[in-house]
Amino acid sequence: MQRYLALLWDPLNLESVRTFQSFGLSSSTKPAAWVTACDASGMFVMHTGMRRGAAGAYPLPHGGGVVLGRIFDRRHGDYTSMRQIVLDGAAASEIIDSGGQQLVDRYWGTYFAIVHDVTAARYHVFRDPLGNMPSYHMRFKGVEIFFSHIEDCARLLPLRYSVDRQYLARWLMFGNLTFEATGLEGVAPVPAGDRLTFSQGRMTRSVLWDPIAIASAADLEQLDAAASALRATVQDTVNAWASCYENITLRLSGGLDSSIIAGCLAHVPSAARISYLNVCIDIDSGHEQVAIAGVDRRTADKIRAIVGSGDERYFARLVAERWRTELIERQRALVMDLTRLWDTAPTVSPNLYFTVMEQEDILLDLIGSRDTQAFFSGQAGDSIFQATVQPLPAMDQAYLHGFRSGLWEQILATSRLSKDSVWSVLGKTVRHGLLRRPYLSPFAILNLPTLVNAELTAGLSNQDFESELSKRISRSSLPPGKKDHAKGLTWSAWYDFVFDSGRSTDHIDPLNSQPVWETMLRIPTTTVLAGGISRGLARRAFADLLPAEIRKRQVKGSGSSFYQQIVKRNRTLLRERLLDGLLVEQGYLDRGRLDACLAAPEPSLTVPAPILLSYLTAEAWLQKWAGTVQTAVAAHSLLLSAQ
């Protein structure tokens, strides 16, 4: 994963100039392993260098800025080899004159961009609309600082950081926060799809990519046309990314989404070597009932009906046999050293390293032993293809078309999808479709069990956990099912699950790309969930690439019972690190309830195991920043003296 640090300042503002100079960064003083992408009056950008794959740099001429990452031109579909793109001449002028809009409209990929309109004295900063490139922003004494990894800032810049108490409390309640803040005060993610413009000391924000407008078109309603468009778009996206590498390993779970990527990789025009990796969960952990929180009992029962074992090797082997591709099999063991949570590099927010710890070890081994250049996955498929058991199709049909022909058929199909009675679906169709009353998802964050102190949760609503994009979608006139679909865009920060393996190789999620999302957003919910089947359109579009057992399978592999056993096996460590830790000392967690939970025979029946383990990662994160704040300035002084 490409790392970068970018600084913008006003060269006519004395405070800004002095602040930048105090950092001691320039082309001659940067770290040896880093490359200067831009060194001009008012702008300095450096990164960890270019390599085959997602790490590249596209300078815009005459001080016009730079694009870091990997971009593809929508007009070119030949991916027999990696296409080199140069942003010069008319292409650069169009990007600069449009304030970056032309980059979003004509190209796609994974990138971070600074576009400098020299004439207007404006800087436009944005990243790819899906937010696949990590990008954060903070301001210090007139200097705008953008970066991919906070550990680089902590090492290179003499700044102090404070923990955002409100954010951390919310993160402890729900570890997949999407609103625009981080665990550090003053540090925020660059909003995906939006542009930040800096001019004369002021910052403004505007929309570059509007998923609501795309979804409002809904012009791919016909089933065969939608299936063909989806198939072609996903294949083209996989072709593009595969052309960047010579050696690819697909993380093949055996589920629908990764199996679709396997089928597409089998048809790429480039000559990349392909292998599969399946990491299954200890099969002895699959006998416990899965604890499901945050939903009512009926919804929990529906989810349990489609949650399967974490061992999907049988299905991965079917795919490997189908495409005659090597399958590397590894297993997650119940023996997990959770003290390693304290060994990770500083991050802007607590991470969920425990979910990928052993997998990271496996990936590092493959990088060293097999020279894997990229790990592909089917991540984000649930959101993009819309994996759901909610009664959405009939509501959307009524919302858009009223009593027009086909509504009763959609009610019947929706009943099959949701496992609700026909009469229950009919009632929801009338209320939320015909009458257009707001529909609320059965999942509510505030319904999740928590050990966070009540004073920190008082007054919160579910909207307090939403991003600005999610709120815009809620306020839009999209039908209920399309709102649910579009909100999947806010769950795309998959780089948060990449650790040491990302230092030397790329992690590519082809489904989570701008072209695929644009295609899917144009397809009505009734077509996306064709036949009343979760991910129904995807099953149809890729039917010939999938073994029948996978295409028809409705069950999803889950690691829930695995984590329940991890908690029981590490109860002593959890008690030692949490009961007398900073989270309790600083009033985040209720010590009495935490003690009672960990003393119970089955702690996960009080609070789900992943939440308990997330408390441990948050404790490690908080302790790390307590130490980092004390040493950051001293470390910077040592760095400057060594240069």
From TrEMBL:
Record field: catalytic activity: L-aspartate + L-glutamine + ATP + H2O = L-asparagine + L-glutamate + AMP + diphosphate + H(+)
Entry's Gene Ontology BP terms: asparagine biosynthetic process
Gene Ontology MF: a single term: asparagine synthase (glutamine-hydrolyzing) activity
Gene3D superfamilies linked to this entry: HUPs (3.40.50.620)
PANTHER family: ASPARAGINE SYNTHETASE, ASPARAGINE SYNTHETASE (GLUTAMINE-HYDROLYZING)
Pathway in which the depicted protein is active: Amino-acid biosynthesis; L-asparagine biosynthesis; L-asparagine from L-aspartate (L-Gln route): step 1/1
EC number: 6.3.5.4
Domain Asparagine synthetase: 230-388, 510-622
Pfam families with a match to the protein in the record: Asn_synthase (PF00733)
Protein name: asparagine synthase (glutamine-hydrolyzing)
Signal peptide, first to last residue: none
